[in-house]
Amino acid sequence: MVVRTSSSPSTPASAPEVAPARALERLREASPLTQCITNAVATNFTANALLALGAAPAMCDIPDEAGMFAGIAGGVLVNLGTPTSEQRDAAREAVAVGTPWVLDPVAVGALPVRTALAHELLEARPAIIRGNASEILAMAGAGAGGRGVDATDASEDALDAARSLATRTGGTVAVSGETDLIVDAERTARVRGGSALLTKVTGGGCALGAAMAAFAAIAEPFDAALAASAVWAVASERAASGSRGPGSFAVAFLDELAAIQPADLEGRAELA
Question: Disulfide engineering: 20 pairs with which of 104, 181, 227, 233, CB 3.0-4.6 Å?
Answer without folding.
Answer: 227
